[in-house]
Amino acid sequence: MKFRDALVAAAVLSLPMTAVAQPISGPYIGLGAGVNLMAKQSFTTSNSTSGSLSATAGPVFVGSFGWGFGMGLRAEIEANYRYNHFNNASGFGGGTGTGVAAAGGGTEQKYGGMVNALYDFNVAPWIKPYIGVGVGYMGVQVDNLRGSGGGRGFTAANATRGAFGYQGILGAAFPIAPAFALTTEFRYLGLAGTRSYPGTLSPSGLPTTVRSNSDNNYGFLVGIRYAFNTPAVAAPPAAAVPAPVAPSRSYLVFFDWDKADLTARAKSIIADAAANSAKVQYTKIDVNGYTDTSGSPKYNMGLSLRRANNVAGQLVKDGVPKAAIVITAFGETNPLVPTGPNVREPQNRRVEIIIR
Fold first, then answer.
1. Across the chain, which distance is largest between two alpha carbons, in Å?
2. Which residue among 225, 272, 307, 342 has the highest number of C-beta atoms inside a 10 angstrom radius?
3. What are the structural domain ranges in the chain?
4. CATH of span 250-355
5. Which helix or strand (DSSP H or E) is residue 297 part of?
């Protein structure tokens, strides 16, 4: 089974909520529990007796440790456990039309580890959908496994077999604090190949090999996730206020993370700068764009240029001559608040308007 990641645009509503809903960067842990539905499983024996067993819903538990790379990408290792009880059979020479009911029983436990790759979609501050794929190795333990119909069937010895597993993940996280999020998930788990168990035929009692030919699982889980290095929510930076007597010659316009569009507050600051530029003598107006240190330097240089261009365009709309504006992109250099690499600092995501 193949899965394809898709990218969607992020929509940010406010700075405090954005800090909660930003993609994970650094280590995190997650726990989940729910219900596992196992699809009907087919079995054959070495003497060609065949049929299938249905199972009741059972529990599923998942624990994970992962690392967020920013920009929505995550990788994690996972330990999981599933339990189901077989309660119905079809085939084995009995069932519909034979006059002899088919019967089955026993339990199956699955436990193992997976390696997952996931992508978070930053669609809104209050919800973050995500998709993922994973591969790993599972132990499959059967106990008291049996199936019969039409006067013949099998019993399998209690045993454990290993199998490679693969899964698809569809989930959503709901931030409840800067570091915590509630999660809901659907997980499909499939096992590759077949698994063989020693057994006996009924009613003859002859030895046989019981082979499981399929194992498909559909889990529905709820859980909680904790990100260790989630930054504290920063207060919005104070906006520059023109002095009542001498108009200010320097203005700061701030931006949300990974955004270049102008908010209503940003447009108000730009309008003040444009209006006050008409009250002083100047030779040029510098428009300098900056970013924080999250993301690559090349990407940040382009982002800072887009921010500066948007501010300059708004200045022109507000009456400033285009020829008087000098646009410069500085990327993540010259931070207003010095930080290390890959730090999302709101006050470094800015454009400076300087009237010279």
1. 106
2. 307
3. 15-227, 250-355
4. 3.30.1330.60
5. helix 297-317
